[in-house]
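Lecture 7, part 2: worked example. A protein chain together with pyridoxal-5'-phosphate.
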Amino acid sequence: MIPFHDLTVVHAELADEIEAATERVLRSGRYILGAEVEAFEDEFARYHGMRHAIGVASGTDALHLALKAAGIGPGDEVVTVAWTAVATVNAIEQTGAKPVFVDVCPQTCTIDVAAAASAITPRTKAIVPVHLYGQPADLTRLRDLADRYHLFLLEDCAQAAGARWEGRRVGTWGNAAAFSFYPTKNLGACGDGGAVLTNDDRLAARLRRLRHHGQGNRYHHLERGFNSRLDELQAAILRVKLPHLDAHNRQRQRLAGCYRRHLRGVELPPSPPATPGEHVYHLYVIRHPQRQLIHQRLAQRRIETLIHYPVPVHRQPAFADLGYAEGSLPITERLAREVLSLPLYPGLKPSVVARVARAISLCVEAPVPC
Ligand SMILES: *Cc1c(COP(=O)(O)O)cnc(C)c1O
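Predicted complex, written out as structure tokens:
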């Protein structure tokens, strides 16, 4: 059996340090908003060369609270993609604003900046690009677009911790950036967690209030807020893992190189120097018109693959009321029919990658009986 994920490999590699960190928290008697969260926020901000990181309860909350802190709400429009995890869109809707979907570029699977520009109306207040699968969106053009129309640029970095665009890390280009520490993400906790990065002092102060019931001084509430805190245990574990993020991403890139060398007959994800983006392969996603057959054939060989995503957000029953008909986002819809995510995680052996790649190449050379 070749599983899609195996989080136990990295855990085993860091077990001593993680156990020491969790023991330290358990013995401290301080479990919510304490020294570990403060230290992690500091270290995460410094890793990015940014002024503020604010720990929150999840990546979804990081998106929601960042938009809310920027004053976005009912009556506003937020331009984003339907080719993303549903969380991006749920977070926008939680503010009361309306998500406006645009298509993606077929090579990078990230927001089509020209389409985003055409979707701007007088109600548009923000753009939320998603660095999907670990591939950065075109941040140079997005930054220009946001500046030109005075829009709040919020990067969804949930799948791209540590990636770079033109040599500069994702999360440092937007007015703010949202990260998820869901266990399978490139920087994963052992539970839920998230963070917002920003250089804006006022936005940071408001985020610190919003995550903690709008509290200014103890039991004095300046505004209505939420319960959305990163806990001490997760922060302590993240402090162990952050120093390994770059090495783990390099391992992902080496494994992606291994897929690239061995795969035949399928469309591969972009790799430098094809784009100025440095992909960190949260997911290794290939494309093929016979995706369903390859998926089934690999399952018969006990190789687990997943589909990110079989139904794009604008075609989900939950979002039918937004009124996007079939065919309204043609590239997004084509990707939904063709993508297949292959096993890739730190600790996976290159020989296993070669086996998966051989199984796929065999399958597409004889696609009909597959
Ligand atoms: C995982 C993810 C989120 C949400 O993160 P959670 O921590 O699960 O709330 C948001 N956007 C994208 C693109 C994601 O992959």
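The longest helix spans residues 245-262. The longest strand covers residues 52-56. Keep this in mind for problem set question 3.
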